[in-house]
Amino acid sequence: MKNKLSCIIVEDLPTAANFLNRFCSQSGLLDVAGIFPDVTSALRFLDERTVDLIFLDVEMPGGTGFELMDKLTFSPKVILTTSKTEYAYNAFEYYVTDFLKKPFTYKRFLEAVEKVSPPAPEPSAPAPAYKDHLFIKVDQKLVKLASEDILYIESMGDYVRFVTPLKKFTNLNTMKNLEERLDPQVFIKVHRSYIVNINKIDDLQGNIIYIQKQEVPIGKAHREQVMQRLNII
Length: 233
Prior knowledge:
Blueprint: E1 5-10, H1 14-27, E2 30-36, H2 39-46, E3 53-56, E4 59-60, E5 63-64, H3 65-71, E6 77-82, H4 88-93, E7 98-101, H5 106-114, E8 133-138, E9 141-146, E10 152-156, E11 159-163, E12 168-172, H6 175-181, E13 187-191, E14 194-197, E15 203-205, E16 208-211, E17 214-217, H7 223-229
Parallel strand pairs: 1-2, 1-3, 3-6, 6-7
Antiparallel strand pairs: 4-5, 8-9, 10-11, 10-14, 11-12, 13-14, 15-16, 16-17
């Protein structure tokens, strides 16, 4: 659901002001913060508050809508509402959002408001679903490795080595590809040549991680991220 935009109506004719107020309420897009019959009272309000949008008549007692825009200290969106088309050029020079010629329909009103309303946010892409295992090709066959069994992964040029408690598996692969495929909640890159299972870290001394008595170096570029991920108390 979109957030409502704050607006005011500056219109000297009560009938026209009520008409606009009803349209604002009906749209569900706008929150009317005030209705003002002249430029002076509207500016007094706008000296204390800002709004997203002003519905602004042109000809009013004590000043025109263009004079109001000249005196604003901020830049709200403006939709001019007037019965005279000769003001259209001036409206263009003031970069108003739209020009509603009285009388206007609710449909035309909505078209103008939609130019002000921010677009609905794009739905966020669902988080990738990571599996608790992977298959790697080793010696012309596929070997299933559970994520929890992998202690760490080491780069070896065009190959990578998966180290488990019982065995090591060498696979034609790249660290970049693995970073995209492995669950980041479980695995973390600690060096340009090493990815470790963060749940398997036994100890850390200086720039060395110990996993089941095996040493894995921490690269300078990765140390800060590693320290943030560890549950240090």
